[in-house]
Amino acid sequence: MNILNRKIIHVDVDAFYASVEQIDNPKLKGKPVIVGGISSRGVVSTCSYEARKYGVHSAMPIFQAKKLCPEGIYISGRHDRYDEMSKKIFALLHEITDDIEIVSIDEAYLDVTYLYHTAEYIGKYIKNKIKKETGLTVSVGISYNKFLAKLASEWDKPDGFFVIKKEDIPEILKPLPIIKIHGIGKKTVEKLNKIGIYSIEDLLLYDLDTMVNLMGTMGEEIYERIRGVDNREIKTHSERKSIGTEMTFTEDIDDFEEIIKRAEIYLHEVVELLIKKKMLAKTVMIKIKFDDFTQVSRSKSLEVYTDDEKYFGLLLNDLLHHMVLKSKVRLLGVTLSGLINNHEKQLMLFDLIGEDNGK
Ligand code: TTP
Ligand code: MG
User: What spacing in Å lies between the alpha carbon of 96 and ligand 1's midpoint?
Assistant: First the structure.
């Protein structure tokens, strides 16, 4: 898989705590709501977009917020309720894929590269689903890596939906102020401003060595980011249940040999991903949808966990040869399941060796 062809979605809830307060108490809708420590030394956790018009923002001392927005509604916050809403949102996202990295209470990345629908379709689905099930609006950003997907979700907040494509780079990045680069803190911004660097365009003029001199170890990362490069993987928390791919053909196929050929190509892709994820599988499943939209799926399992394509290939062939192709095929899918992490397998082997030695 070419790294530029990944499909990453970043989802971030709009004004999360304040929006939950507005949903639970409709009288607060459309009003400047500020959630935070209400003591005189407290700070703003977040505020509704109505309050942001007054210049109020996260981490601002409450006394200052009160000066800017005296008519605001100040709430100390209900963290159990926010946790509950957060769990609900992530559960909805998990219905789409387990390839999710949860970054904070209201923010996650999804890798939808191997899903059937387009990232745009899935992004819109996410917005609608979360709105319907929780009442909250989220901003969705889509791109081919995490850095750009996050930038895209911030692009037209609130209720945003924005896609950054390969061909938008570097033009779309150039005018952005350097504070927009995730990983650059306020101090670095000040330092760079002093030497006349304000935008990404300004920063693009510097070579890698100079960047490292200016920013230390972060320099290398920033050098890549501003060129639209970010090879970081999605770090999933939950175990994947399966890895698969499926495709609807542009023209229905009835040539059996052709179907076998395609199935083997899909298997190859899926095994590559399995190896990349450092996992082993046991079961191969094949799914076929016919031109009358009926569908069959069959699976077969090995005795052992492996990532060796040739074993899966034998099962695949066996499965296909036992399938009755009653009409033309419009969709073919190949999935591996019964997954374990590769190191688990190594541990199991280690245990056996241990037992042998004990005899
Ligand atoms: P954010 O996603 O940064 O902010 P937000 O959801 O309120 O607003 P938006 O995404 O539309 O810009 O943070 C999520 C929640 O985390 C936020 O609602 C409250 C909490 N939070 C704090 O408690 N303190 C902080 O300094 C920040 C930034 C967030
Ligand atoms: Mg948010």
Answer: 24
